[in-house]
Amino acid sequence: MKTRITELCGIEYPIIQGGMAWAADHHLASAVSNAGGLGLIGAASAPEDVIRQQIREAKQMTDKPFGVNVMLMSPYADDVARVVVEEGVKVVTTGAGNPGKYLKMWQDAGIKVIPVCASVALARMMEKAGVDAVIAEGTESGGHIGYATTMTLVPQVADAVSIPVIAAGGIGDGRGMAAAFMLGAEAVQMGTRFCVANECITHQNYKDRIIKAKDIDSEVTGLTHGHPVRCLRNAMTKEYLRMEREGVPFEEMEKLTLGSLRSAVVDGDVKNGTVMAGQIAGLIKKQQSCREIIDEIMEEFTAKVS
Predict the structure, then answer these.
(1) How many other β-carbons are positioned within 10 Å of the β-carbon of residue 263?
(2) Sheet of 15-17: strands edge to edge?
(3) What's this model's pTM, rounded to 2 decimal places?
């Protein structure tokens, strides 16, 4: 299957794996790329030596293109931006900011730059800056989110820019992919579905929590201070939302979540940790390999659009 995204990234299928902090390492990225999609290493707030090693490990596990997701708010963003050039990474996606200060360096190195955008205004700004494509991410996604839904955001972004659009947020199967293409997308990015992949290093408790989730199990914390995060309901979200209702200072709420994502992903504390997951969690019913996930999605997608 060919779209402008498959041509741009040199991949077989227009499926991109989200760059999830603590979860998207070289094991997952290489497995997705070997299965025909585009795997991403999530740089999150990791220092340059960690990301360099992750990139080199991925190269040992796949000869297919893979990318790195650079979180622009990271204190190590400048270092990681340089590392992806030095290590010959083919694709960079960005989140939590504007990648403008790195664009020339990346483009001079032949890196394809694809920022995540939660609004039409940002997508237009990124096109003007010269990026290669944009990821229009709806509020249904897990982790840090915007306010527009995927259903409303994707078509508006597709109408507003001429570069390729990748849809993200609430997409986890072939039906969702088909819907995204009807809205104007030329690829999809999925995080939560790949969180439960066999090759993903997330703790089994984390995977089981996603698989057992119901349609109403996600909460959004941080709305009162403008930094909304979607995660699955547990003791931590209950306490955080109570603190928000009572007007507890942000600094106090921040203490509650400090290190909580790692606690859930790595240590398996799904009661007190932050279980970031999108609203698609209610549709995911089993654990599979990355190849099985992609093959299943493409089979369903083809049946829906044929």
Answers:
(1) 21
(2) 15-17, 187-190, 165-168, 134-137, 112-117, 91-95, 66-71, 39-42
(3) 0.94
Q: Where are the alpha helices (DSSP H) in 23-167?
A: 26-34, 48-61, 77-86, 100-108, 120-129, 150-160
Q: What is the mean pLDDT of residues 190-213?
A: 96
DSSP state of 283: G
The C-alpha atoms of residue 31 and residue 29 are separated, in whole angstroms, by: 6
pLDDT at residue number 44: 87
Report the DSSP pairing between strands 15-17 and 39-42.
unpaired
Q: Residue 42, SS3?
A: strand
Amino acid identity of residue 98, one-letter, is N
CA distance 86 to 221: 38
Environment class of residue 63 by beta-carbon count within 10 Å: exposed (0-12), middle (13-18) or buried (19+)?
exposed
Round to whole Å and give the CA distance between 62 and 148.
36
